[in-house]
Amino acid sequence: MQLPLMNGGRSQYPYRHLLGIEGLSRSDIQALLDTAEDYVALSRQVEKKAATLRGRTQINLFFEPSTRTQSSFEIAGKRLGADVMNMSVSSSSVKKGETLLDTAATLNAMRPDIIIVRHHAAGAVNLLARKVDCSVVNAGDGAHEHPTQALLDALTIRRAKGRIEGLVVTICGDILHSRVARSNIICLAALGAFVRLVGPSTLLPSEVERFGVEVSPDMRTGLAGADIVMMLRLQRERMSGAFVPSIREYFRYFGLDREKLSFAKPDALVMHPGPMNRGVEIASDVADGTQSLVREQVEMGVAVRMAVLEALARHLPNE
Amino acid sequence: MSEREFDRTGPSQPVLLANARLVDPQERREFHGGLIIKDGLIAEIGAHLATVSSLDDMREKMRIIDCLGHVVAPGLVDLQAFVGEPGAEHRETLASASRAAAAGGVTTLVCRPDTHPVIDDPAIVDFVLRRARAASALRIHPSAALTKGLAGREMTEIGLLKEAGAVVFGDGHKSIMNSQLMRRALLYARDRDAIVSHFTQDETLAAEGVMNEGEFASRLGLSGVPKVAETLVLMRDLALVRLTGARYHAALISCAESLEAIRAAKSEGLRVTCAVSINHLTLNESDVGDYRTFFKLSPPLRSETDRRALVEGLSDGVIDAIVSDHDPQDVETKRQPFAESADGAIGLETMLAAGLRLVHSGEITLPCLLAALSSGPANAFRLPPANLVVGSCADLVVFDPDEPWIVDPSTLHSLCKNTPFDEARLQGRVLATLIGGEFVNAVASSLPGL
Fold first, then answer.
1. With a threshold of 0.90, does the pTM exceed it?
2. What residues 141-160 of chain B have any CB closer than 8 A to a CB of chain A?
3. CA–CA gap between residue B117 and residue B154 (Å, rounded)
């Protein structure tokens, strides 16, 4: 990463890459959220195009299949005027390490300006960022970070509640394998929220309470007084005995239904990074109910990614 | 005997058990007195109910039974018994196991999960409970498998099974060799406040072993199961308990080294309990003698030194429970060359008398024996307390600790007769067994008023 650049009085995102929320200051995050507000307005217009990235090349390099994150980055790039190219590399055909660096070198030779990377291995995006000359955005690396998801969640909460500071945010489910949870814990804590984690102990990372969060294996305790209930996706292969016994047992104790939601504040709002497993971690009526922010999250995703791309573009060489 | 629906509400004429030696292992007290049973509960207890002749004015209000100074104690609680249902009704049924239990003074038992089908689904727990209510007066609590199909690969629905009524989770006489799975199962069980009961035996070390590894096995030309097969898995488990904070029960320990591991874990404050079978307390490897398959057990009978150590563990309270490990095997599976015959022995009916051997030999006291047969196991599995306290369920056993008898397998109630106490001279006979104040077993004319 580069040293922060100072820019007059207005706070701006000071780095060349966005590899994680870790290391960002409260004002870095707020600067991105403030910019994103402008792009929410732009995206609601008939004319959605800006010229910020005109002439720039953006490559979406996805080593893991993704629909929503990839299309969200693609739309964000296109609305800013970039030429966007999608490159999906099936993880099974790729051997880690050497091949990743080969790919990086190949792409670098094509002179892109921004690369958006998702990879199944924690730290892979960081490694790649060190080998290329352009800006890199982490779109998810293993169970490490997914910074734009945390930013879009923060923007969604800020718009829905008017603030983040002082809110109780409970993150529920498979924390162990979740990069969304890790980025959110750091982001929300930086913005002054109280973060709680709820999930079976088999799906909690070791010593996670040292992240400055409260941990509970019980929804009733974990949701009491919560302003925001953030549900996480449980991967199918983890539902049948290795981490939790079965879908029905998981839903019984951790699936967010009306009854469990009632443990939270009456005006609590529900979030989910998607795609949802209805009947596993969330009941349909809650997912589609009036307390759900799931659709807003998707909308904020595009705006936040536009803000990130704009912020990085400021550090791109102009000659 | 035909099966019938047992009515637990029962007729409510109060019963007075007078002139009894009352032993309450939970409260650690013993005195000469009597107790009154009303509506299935202990309504009154005290020394003033000792002398029958002074109680004449009560005769109209209640049935008075003169216990002739014999012992009245909480009914036995057996944490491990195979009752045949579902799927092995040729070996035992809930009805036959209940008769054997009643004859042996057992009032509560926890049945094993390794049935056909395996008790690994809440619907099967429910089935066993319903069958038990219909076929037996005994209080039967199902245990459930810890892994689906006892396959040792995926954990079961511990939360839903517990809600259905499973009191403890384990894989019967199978050990979970996958340490990762064991760790996660313990962690998950802790979340759901469930007890994991594990049979500890390393499969690869036990391999083809059929009796205790050592001189006897070598002389008989039989392959042995080393003690380390047990202690290795037990010590792994205890390390995982330390890591996860789970509640853990060592289902069957058989040697001094295991006892020491449990002792250390307890003094460290881990939530650990353990049980030993009546066979391992009263028999040893030399009883195998001339390839007697009724002494082929899993874990195998160990050395006399181990047996003595276990008895000591009983005295000093490291061992929480004595279990029958009742395991009926039919003739075809036992009349085989030693190595090829099935493991297991029946024990419900002889457990108390066999245990009294240790009292008569002066190795332990009677309250100590009874603690390991009733209050200890009840506490280990968080079952209703087994005590003699006003308001407690009148689940009781009345026995003469001294009466000698010779075990005749043909008179035993179990469908299978594979008892290692075949023709054994035992001392101590159950005269009556009560569950919820109802007599489920009474030896006719043994006590005035019975």
1. yes
2. 147-148, 153-160
3. 17
